[in-house]
Design brief:
Length: 275
């Protein structure tokens, strides 16, 4: 019997996961992807654990029902607040043969190779910082690295509303960065631990001291996914390869298309769904 194949699901609360998707497409150009942005209910950053878990599980089930055997939570907030419960409690019941992966562990696995001083800054949503997920994962994968965390709750609304390049937007972002660096001047690496933040990476590089490098997660997640698929041929063989990407959003699809086209720097045509 022929194996059922389907796209790799990529989920984010909104547009941020597109920064991960574009790196996945570069790394795995033959693979198919199905992106789902829960834009109608975004941002997730300040929502409770229960709500982020409930919304993320709905999205994962939707992607499974559309043929995905592997779903990447391309959202730190969802990875921090929902991934473990989905992997440990839900998957064994609803789809033991399918897999859901997040973005925090891949970053934790490479962090110690990136820093000389072993002092790393983490910028993320309130939810990701409060979950302490980076500290927990780093204790496992990079115990010599010390992190200084800073929640930047205003960045996602600024980016989603295209205000990050405005003068007040830039001032707000710079204030957060200055505060983080003042808290720990030994930081030599800052991880953008929110998938929206790569949109402001070049501005951040302008405003931080030259010895600090700014790291976006997309290429790290892509590299780890390649190695995951090599180690898990039983999942790899369920991924279809026609170089196609489709986009789903819980927002009005025309609104999504306009903004997503800016993120992806090419025209995007999505379909609206209800979760
Ligand atoms: N892109 C999400 C993340 O990586 C956050 C956006 C939101 O707050 O919904 O955490």
């Amino acid at each position: 019997m022929e194996k059922q194949q389907g796209p790799i699901g990529v989920f984010d609360s909104g547009y941020g996961g597109l920064t991960v998707l574009s790196e996945l497409q570069k790394a795995l150009p033959q693979h198919d992807f199905l992106y789902l942005g829960d834009n109608a209910r975004s941002p997730y950053g300040n929502r409770s654990f229960d709500v982020v878990y409930e919304y993320t599980l709905e999205a994962v089930k939707e992607l499974f029902s559309r043929g995905c055997s592997l779903v990447i939570l391309a959202c730190n907030t969802a990875s921090a607040k929902a991934l473990r419960s989905i992997q440990q409690t839900d998957l064994p019941k609803i789809a033991p043969e399918k897999r859901v992966l997040g973005v925090i562990r891949p970053s934790a696995e490479v962090i110690s190779e990136l820093t000389q001083t072993k002092e790393v800054g983490i910028v993320a949503t309130q939810g990701t910082i409060q979950s302490n997920s980076y500290k927990i994962e780093l204790e496992k994968y990079a115990p010599t690295v010390h992190i200084t965390q800073k929640a930047c709750p205003i960045w996602v609304p600024l980016i989603e509303n295209n205000l990050h390049n405005s003068i007040p937007g830039k001032m707000l972002i710079k204030n957060d960065m200055d505060e983080l660096i003042a808290t720990n001047p030994k930081i030599d690496t800052i991880i953008l631990a929110c998938t929206h933040y790569p949109i402001v990476k070049s501005y951040l590089e302008e405003i931080v001291p030259a010895n600090i490098q700014i790291i976006a997660q997309g290429s790290i997640v892509a590299e780890k996914l390649i190695s995951y698929l090599e180690r898990h041929p039983e999942i790899a063989e369920k991924c279809s390869k026609n170089s196609l990407t489709n986009y789903l959003t819980t927002e009005n699809n025309l609104v999504f298309d306009e903004k997503a086209s800016i993120f992806m720097q090419k025209p995007i045509a999505s379909s609206h769904i209800k979760l």
